[in-house]
Prior knowledge:
Layout: E1 2-5, H1 17-43, H2 68-97, H3 103-128, H4 133-158, E2 164-166, H5 170-196, H6 212-239, H7 244-269, H8 274-297, E3 299-301, H9 308-316, E4 318-321
Antiparallel strand pairs: 1-4, 2-3
Amino acid sequence: MRRICAVTPSVRFPVSTTLLRRLAYANIVANVAIVVTGGAVRLTASGLGCPTWPRCTDESYTTTPEMGVHGVIEFGNRLLTFVLVLIAGATLLAALLHRPRRRSVVLLAVGVVLGIVAQAVIGGITVRMQLHPSIVGIHFVVSMLLLLVSYALWRRVDEPDGPASSLVPAPIRTLVRITVAASAAVIIVGVAVTGSGPHAGDADAVRNGLDPETISQVHADLVFLLIGLSVALWLALRAVGAPAHSVRAAGVLLVVELAQGVVGFVQYFTDLPAILVGAHMLGSCLVWLATLSVLWSIRERRPAATPPAEAAAQSETSVPVPA
């Protein structure tokens, strides 16, 4: 005798895993884009192009001809926030309509929406605080956290719901965690470097008071540490026979770090031209994403076991047919 499960008619919403994955990836791209455009606002001294928030002026929500190109640049960056909200909202709706609905995916999608709203509020505080470097720095760090949540959402779409299991020995996992911490430290200290430099976003914006040469040297030291850890990680993964995708992720991280380091040194020794500073901001996002790729590459999730009660229910609904 063979057994075949009876098919119970059910309503299916037209939201595929492929669509959900693409929307999740769009969140990553959009959040990188707004970091770069936010950098353009600062690098063109347009940070106070719209001098108040949520209005652009006390009388208007939009820029006016009298505000010139700085107003257009700042207002354009504000409009991009609505694009992010639309993408994040569409992703959340897709996660809710996807079947089977997965709680972890929905929660991460909610996290992206809330993160974008929080960023809009922090952006408003930044303007009202006249581009104080501490608030500007928080704005950037939250962008990196939002990239973390967006990346986790993208990866979670294709992961099963079972527990995560490691693909590498414990010492390698520790080395990966140290590398992630070093990458985060490089970003945070880089924010302090930016707060001490000339690109304040407005001619009258204050600086953080740190000595640019000293804090830049600390930043460079951390970069050397990160590159050294990444080389060690790549070699260690190869030595223990880690999966090919783990070795590849570590190699990509190392290449991205080296490219970012070259941009950083060139911009430092050429008096921080705006175009290179903007490229360095993009590079920060890419380094962080490459770091997250390594973190995700050393473990995998397996399908969750079917609960006994559910397995019994499936057995009762099966229909015997002749062999």
